[in-house]
Amino acid sequence: MRRKIVVGNWKMNNTIAESVDLATAIAEKVGADGVQCEVGIAPTFPALYEVCKVIEWSGIRLCAQNCHYESDGPFTGEVSTRMLAAAGCSYVILGHSERRQLFGETNATVNLKVKKALAEGLSVILCVGETLDERERGVTGQIVTAQVVEGLIDVTDISKLVIAYEPVWAIGTGKTATKEQAQEVHALIRAKVTELYGQKAADHLRIQYGGSVKPSNAAELFAMPDIDGGLIGGASLNADDFMAIVEAAG
Ligand code: PEP
């Protein structure tokens, strides 16, 4: 039985003080409710250390939204996995579609980051997903498979990996994939992972859905057999909405 995982991706929102307030509100609810699923939040880099201090007691995982693939050095504007771990992160989100589309990340650079983060002892949420054009051209399976296969080149142990299926056309648009559309791609991802890593590893792998998940649609998505929780953008910026989604995951 896989433990569901719900992570809030705060993107480029909230100052340090605002992040601490939101994290505190979520931690109080998660701590008091004793939720079943694993819960994570991904504030911006400047807020990580302060947020860590207010969530540590609650069991909420601190997640980063990106990292570089080198440890230190002349990479202006970048942050390394070593720094993230020292700030209290246990997860890093990699290959988000906004990183791929707006900042030129490719399967090859995502792969370098995945390997570096895992080597640092961080867990990785590897994001994959097709654009609207790719879905309409009928190449969703090909695109997502390539993102999984190429993102995991030379990765031998996937025990600290989570995959997030996030159709690009559903992110921040209010358009959610139907539960059947999402399940179909999740099953395809698990089949590919079975081929690459064997049945046992694939059975343990958690695959989150992301793309306009809200309190009103979370339960039906999370009830699908291969959907093991969600990566939540917009709705994670409101503690009540985020908690309703966490509770829908059990
Ligand atoms: C995301 O950015 O990972 C995401 C799923 O965003 P939203 O929930 O706002 O669609």
In short:
The chain has helices at residues 16-33, 48-55, 81-86, 97-102, 107-119, 132-136, 140-151, 179-197, 199-204, 218-222, 239-248; strands at residues 5-9, 38-42, 61-64, 91-94, 123-128, 161-165, 206-209, 229-232.
Any chance you could write out the topology, listing elements then pairs?
Layout: E1 5-9, H1 16-33, E2 38-42, H2 48-55, E3 61-64, H3 81-86, E4 91-94, H4 97-102, H5 107-119, E5 123-128, H6 132-136, H7 140-151, E6 161-165, H8 179-197, H9 199-204, E7 206-209, H10 218-222, E8 229-232, H11 239-248
What is the succession of H and E elements? EHEHEHEHHEHHEHHEHEH
Largest sheet: 8 strands, parallel
Bound ligands: phosphoenolpyruvate
Strand neighbour order, sheet with most strands: 7-6-5-4-3-2-1-8
- Low-pLDDT stretches are none
Q: Helix count, per DSSP? A: 11
- Which CATH architecture of the domain at 95-234? Alpha-Beta Barrel
Q: Give the termini distance in whole angstroms.
A: 13 Å
> Cα-atom Rg, whole angstroms?
17 Å
What is the CATH topology of the domain at 95-234?
TIM Barrel
Determine the CATH superfamily of the domain at 95-234.
Aldolase class I
Report the strand count. 8
Return the average pLDDT rounded to an integer: 97
Per the principal axes of the C-alpha atoms, what is the gross shape?
globular
CATH class of the domain at 95-234: Alpha Beta
Given helix and strand content, the structural type is: alpha/beta
Helix content: 40-55%
- Determine the strand fraction and express it as a percent band: 5-15%
Description:
The chain has 250 residues and is of the alpha/beta class. The chain has a domain at 95-234: Aldolase class I (TIM Barrel). Helix content is 43%, strand content 15%. The chain has 11 helices and 8 strands. It has helices at 16-33, 48-55, 81-86, 97-102, 107-119, 132-136, 140-151, 179-197, 199-204, 218-222, 239-248; strands spanning 5-9, 38-42, 61-64, 91-94, 123-128, 161-165, 206-209, 229-232. The protein has an 8-stranded parallel sheet. Helix 2 (48-55) links the parallel strand 2 and strand 3 (61-64). Helix 5 packs across helix 7 (140-151). The longest helix has 19 residues, at 179-197. The radius of gyration is 17 Å and the shape is globular. The mean pLDDT is 97. The site of phosphoenolpyruvate has 13 residues, from strand 8.
